[in-house]
UniProtKB/TrEMBL annotation:
GO terms for molecular function: transmembrane transporter activity. GO terms for cellular component: plasma membrane. It is a multi-pass membrane protein. This is Transporter. Its main location: membrane. Coiled coil: none annotated. Keywords: Membrane, Transmembrane, Transmembrane helix, Transport. Pfam families: MFS_1. The chain crosses the membrane at residues 50-70, 77-97, 103-126, 133-150, 162-186, 198-218, 224-242, 262-283, 295-315, 327-346, 352-370, 391-411, 423-444. It is found in: Cell membrane. Residues 12-449 form the Major facilitator superfamily (MFS) profile domain. The lineage of its organism: Bacteria, Bacillati, Bacillota, Bacilli, Lactobacillales. It comes from the Bacteria.
Length: 454
């Protein structure tokens, strides 16, 4: 009998994904407002980029709790909490009279998205038949991926017409739609009993480590290493690892890092997010500052690629279901590598049309490889570890996304918009080559594991 996915399950996935969509929509829409915000709040670009980085950091820190939350609380309560927190944060951001309140609103939005994003994929792996997991992971990713498709164009159009505050107010329609779709469809998913208390100490240590690590990179603009942040980040990382190994409380399952095949995919997943969000920050600034395009066209430059990539993502998931991960991983990463190489060598001679074309191909390759890597990394684990794998994957990729925006802003601040794009693209090319090695390592480990089982 052919396995089917019920309409209720479909709608519940869409409802929860809409909260993630809302957060990412606001994040990508705000990228094109940086010049405007710098003038309005009378501060520099490197400070304003924390409007994006603070959101991504909040998402990252919140995602570290997702493995515990999904085991401890009902998926419906988690979804409702994320919707309400996002709406409050959006109102604060839209009404903010200062950078500090704007950042606070973005942090609340990040907390909401940090609850919702892992929940989407947990619902998929818990309710969708295994033979269709790739397709539905792709569909869930598509809903989320539509946000970066529309975000920059949406933000650019509103900045040029109604002003940057309207970005927040109009965006409230998304959580309202989530409530309407999900009120009768988002229910409980299968949970494994959890008798251990939440490890607050481990959570605080990791949150401090992630925050200080970003502050450390951000302050490199001054040309010197901040040793205080470096020591705090290193000490809290070591303390977190020690706590994770020795604690009897529940937080993240660090034993997954001992699995070479999991790590072989985890690192590429994180690097794909690092490179994409870094370029998403750099390209609109490049277009406005170097090619002197409007905010609208700067945002529109990313729309065709991310929109096409979002709609193709379910097909990449279907390709995974039919052929396995090898073809989409190798082919996607090859396309990805070629494009970042082209951007690096042509960075001083790009036009709006050429950027649009290159970004279309870039996103196709990135989404093909990224979707397959994420699906395989989570689907390979047993039922007890899927929530932990999801939490780790989502946490690390969002931290690397925040790091990507920080590095992108740093390179442009230090080298200028053109050299910043070139340097970031060469870095991306080197990382893409490294990812080929990691992908090959994954398949080698899988082959060895299968041979042992036989």
């Amino acid at each position: 009998m052919k396995e089917k996915v019920s309409l209720k399950t479909m709608l519940s996935i869409v409802a929860v994904a809409l909260v993630s969509f809302s957060g990412i929509m606001a994040e990508t829409a705000m990228n094109v407002t940086f010049p405007v915000l710098s003038k309005e709040f009378n501060t520099n670009l490197n400070s304003i980029q924390w409007v994006t980085t603070a959101y991504l950091l909040a998402v990252t820190v919140m995602m570290t709790t997702s493995a515990y939350l999904v085991k401890r609380y009902s998926s419906r309560n988690l979804w409702l909490t994320s919707v309400l927190v996002f709406m409050v944060g959006t109102l604060i951001g839209g009404l903010a009279p200062s950078v500090e309140l704007l950042l606070f609103g973005r942090i609340l939005e990040g907390i909401a998205a940090g609850i919702a994003m892992p929940l989407v994929f947990n619902i998929v792996v818990a309710t969708v038949p295994y033979s269709k997991v790739g397709t539905w992971m792709g569909l869930a990713a598509m809903v989320v991926s539509l946000a970066p498709s529309f975000g920059p164009t949406y933000g650019g159009a509103l900045v040029d017409t109604l002003g940057w505050r309207s970005i927040f107010f109009i965006l409230l329609l998304a959580p309202v739609a989530s409530l309407l779709i999900g009120w009768k469809t988002v229910g409980e998913i299968k949970r494994h009993p959890l008798n251990k208390p939440f490890d607050v100490v481990a959570f605080v240590l990791l949150a401090i480590c992630l925050t200080t690590a970003l502050l450390l990179v951000n302050q490199l603009e001054g040309g010197a290493l901040n040793w205080t942040w470096f020591v705090i980040a290193l000490v809290t990382l070591i303390a977190f690892i020690w706590r994770g190994i020795t604690s009897t409380h529940s937080f993240l399952n660090l034993k997954l890092f001992a699995k070479a095949r999991f790590v072989s995919l985890l690192i590429p997943i994180a690097l794909y997010m690092f490179i994409m969000l870094g370029l998403n920050l750099i390209i609109p600034t490049y277009l406005q500052s170097f090619l002197h395009t409007s905010s609208f066209w700067a945002g529109f430059s990313l729309l065709p690629g991310t929109l096409l990539g979002a709609f193709l993502t379910p097909f990449f998931g279907r390709l995974y279901d039919l052929k396995g991960p090898k073809l989409p991983l190798y082919l996607g990463n090859a396309i990805f590598t070629i494009v970042v190489f082209c951007i690096a060598i042509w960075s001083r001679h790009l036009s709006l049309i050429l950027i649009i074309g290159l970004y279309i191909i870039f996103i196709i390759g990135r989404n093909m490889a990224y979707t397959s890597a994420q699906t395989a990394a989570i689907a390979d684990e047993n039922e007890l570890e899927k929530a932990d794998a999801t939490a780790i994957v989502q946490t690390l990729q969002m931290f690397m996304g925040a790091l990507g925006t920080t590095v992108g802003a740093l390179l442009q601040a230090k080298s200028g918009v053109v050299s910043g794009l070139q340097h970031f693209s060469w870095l991306s090319f080197v990382l893409a080559l490294v990812m080929f090695g990691l992908i090959a390592s994954y398949f080698f480990k899988m082959t060895s594991l299968n041979n042992k089982q036989v």
